[in-house]
Amino acid sequence: MRATNRLSAKGAAALAPGKYADGAGLWLIKNEQARGKWVLRVTVYGRRREMGLGAFPAVSLAEARRKADAARAVVREGLDPIKEREKAKREAARNLHFLNDIARDCFEARKAELKGDGAAGRWFSPLAIHVLPKLGKMPVADIDQTDIRDCLKPLWHTKASVAEKALGRLTLCLRHAAALGLVVDLQATEKARALLGKSRHKIENIPSVPWRDVPTFYETLANGSITHLALRLLILTGVRSAPLRFLHDSQIDGDVWTIPAEAMKGRKDATSDFRVPLAPEALAIVEAARRHARDGFLFPSQRKGVISDATMSRMMERRGMAERPHGFRSSLRDWLAEATDAPHEVAETMLGHVVGGSVERAYRRTDFLEQRRVLLARWAKHVTGQSGQVVKMVRGKP
């Protein structure tokens, strides 16, 4: 009788329940005529072991023989084929992390660095909208530059800023995967950038009302509605729309509005709250807004929460204006540059910008509150149509 290849495919199917040797340690064990399993008996480190090679007839005789030959080759190398197979499975499982999972884990790890723990979703949305629908179900180890290029190509020349954010987030996800011990190409995003080429999209600044025309627009905001009051206070203070929309009565102390650090863009230090001096006109707006307040919030929406980010923009859009609320910060900055001689650091601080390096900021303890109070009072006079002279500032004095 032959020492190997004793069985035939047709004969194996007809065998009754029992144990049948194919040779060289390969056995077919049938529990019933139609079903069974393949087992390879090998001797490793002087000890006999049985290695399952799959179910019969799902694993054919030919496939069982190929698996047996591969296992015997491992034994000849002095290794345990069962342990090596389990090791390969663990390695494959470790590398089979889908981008969906990695992206969400990366987001969770960075929440503490984001305003409001990332509740607004702005960090994750470039991935959720533009990357994960196409690449989310791919193992992160398989993602290469061509996958990324094909994913972002539709955006690259039309929505450059969105594509850049998506590419940056994806870079962080790949680094996160590498930190987890996964085998990824950390250069894939830069290679994709090279394949995409230079973007043809030109980023346009948000249009702003020229500072000389602001009084005319301000005068039209006269119906006392929440939207009109919000826009008036936005213009008078030069703040961004987010802290203004979430203005709570508890943040007002006398003629100073203190915006919590977590509500200020670019201020991650929990102690760096931002104080905004309120001119008499601004205080009058705050008082008028208190009549609309709900749960302490001065600019509530009609149903729940506060007015949306688009409420003021839509009002200006309905008037046929190209300008948007955020542009009034530029109006204020231009007025500071052209109608005052305010020092650069004072003018930038008025907009809530972080000025100077970390060492310079460590030694500069002032936030120029009094100088900003004078400037915002003059700005309020200009905005309300009163003639305002050029403001002379003494550099270096708070």
UniProtKB/TrEMBL annotation:
Domain Tyr recombinase, chain residue ranges per copy: 204-376
UniProt KW keywords: DNA integration, DNA recombination, DNA-binding
InterPro entries: DNA_brk_join_enz (IPR011010), Integrase-like_cat_sf (IPR013762), Integrase_catalytic (IPR002104), Integrase_DNA-bd_sf (IPR038488), Integrase_DNA_bind_dom (IPR025166), Integrase_recombinase_N (IPR010998), Phage_int_M (IPR053876), Phage_Integrase (IPR050808)
Gene Ontology molecular function: DNA binding
Classification via PROSITE patterns: TYR_RECOMBINASE
Top-rank lineage group of the source organism: Bacteria
CDD domains: INT_P4_C (cd00801)
Pfam families xrefs: Arm-DNA-bind_3, Phage_int_M, Phage_integrase
Keyword Lipid metabolism recorded: no
The UniProt record lists the keyword Plastid: no
Protein family per UniProt: Belongs to the 'phage' integrase family.
Protein name: Integrase arm-type DNA-binding domain-containing protein
